[in-house]
Amino acid sequence: MFPAGIVSDRVPRRVVYATGLAVFAVTYIGLGFAHSVVWVWLLFPVYGAYWALTDGVGRAWVADLLPAGLAGTGLGLYQGVVGVCVLLAGVWAGLTWDGNGRLPLLISGSMVGVLALGLLTVGKTLDPQGER
After folding, report:
1. Residues 39-49: what's their mean pLDDT?
2. Domain-located, residue 131
3. The dihedral formed by the CA atoms of 111, 117, 123 and 126, expressed in degrees to the nearest 10
4. Is 1 helix (H, G, I), strand (E, B) or coil?
5. Which of 59, 104, 123, 126 is least buried, going by the fewest C-beta atoms within 10 A?
């Protein structure tokens, strides 16, 4: 997380966050198409890069968007929403598991890829300090 934080101090946080989401998309789609355990072992460290690019950077981005007096409330709300979304995604993936698990991976990867593209192309209004 530390190097991603340094990068997000120099380029817009949304770009670092969107890059992390793109890594997620590539990883999930790759896992969805993987036919060998070797691919799984190769893609899991890539999944770690997604986490490193989004976890701390997401919180810093939320803190940038909030007025000073609401930082604690906003960060708590952000973490709560993230937690609920992770829970719902896990339940959804479990319900749609078709024996080999490819469908939830491919759908999730595709949806997050679209989100990453959206942040990179139209998300400029979410940069509180403008482009750095």
Report:
1. 92
2. no
3. 60
4. coil
5. 126
